[in-house]
Write a structure and sequence with these properties.
The complex is a heterodimer of chains A (131) and B (73). Chain A has 131 residues and is of the alpha+beta class. Chain A has two domains: 30 residues; 87 residues, no CATH class. Chain A is 56% helix and 9% strand. In chain A, strands 2-1-3-4 form a four-stranded mixed sheet. In chain A, a hairpin with a 5-residue loop joins strand 3 and strand 4. Chain A is globular, with a radius of gyration of 21 Å. Chain B is mainly alpha-helical. Chain B has three helices and no strands. Classes of the chains: A alpha+beta (131), B mainly alpha (73). The interface between A and B is medium-sized, with 26 and 19 residues.
Chain lengths: 131, 73
């Protein structure tokens, strides 16, 4: 009896840890609900420079969430720029090109002229330097 | 007396130097060169070309970065 319960107990102890380990990266991949809703409603959009911008004046809550994301983006760009021997601006601009391409119809993005555009089914207007 | 003239003054005892100095002084004697500003703004294309190359180089890495950090993109 003792010999059968011991492995079972240790297994029960390991399973929650495994579940946590698996679920953690998955949860880190999803957007903040406040950001996701604002993005879908066109309140925030992707700028040419690789950061999020406000299309309409944001609520204090939305402002905090978006500014937090932009700070995280900048930290990531800084790290990746160092890894690739580029400047933060170069890396951010490259990412911005792709983020604008990745917008789905209805979302907002900034055109090379600086105006906010709504993404249609057709390809977005991008900087001529974009890959 | 400018730098070229002073050099010429010191070294004018040599024939070769005298010739070289004469040539060097011609532009000074030749009057003014007029530079006319263009009507259209000058666009430095070189900067754009370099940037585009950088963007192409970074595009693969940037795509991976977006995929791995879905929470902030």
């Amino acid at each position: 009896m003792v010999h059968t319960t011991r492995p079972l107990r240790s297994a029960l102890r390991v399973v929650p840890a495994l579940l946590l380990a698996v679920s953690w990266p998955a949860s880190a991949q999803t957007r903040d609900p406040v950001y996701a809703a604002a993005r879908a409603q066109g309140q925030v959009g992707e700028q040419v420079n690789g950061y999020l911008g406000f299309v309409t004046p944001p609520s204090p809550e939305l402002r905090k969430v978006v500014e937090d994301i932009n700070i995280k983006r900048r930290a990531l760009y800084a790290q990746k720029a160092q890894d690739t021997d580029a400047t933060i601006e170069e890396y951010a601009l490259t990412t911005g090109c792709m983020l604008i391409t990745h917008t789905v119809p209805g979302e907002k993005y900034q055109s090379p002229a600086g105006t906010w555009e709504t993404r249609a089914a057709t390809p977005p207007q991008r900087d001529p330097r974009c890959p | 007396m400018n730098a070229a003239q002073s050099l010429c003054y010191v070294r004018s005892d040599r024939r070769g130097w005298r010739l070289a100095c004469a040539i060097a002084l011609i532009p000074g004697l030749g009057g003014c060169i007029t530079v006319k500003a263009p009507n259209t703004p000058i666009v430095i294309e070189l900067n754009v070309t370099i940037k585009q190359e950088v963007l192409y180089r970074l595009s693969g890495d940037a795509a991976q970065t977006i995929d791995k950090n879905g929470d902030i993109f």
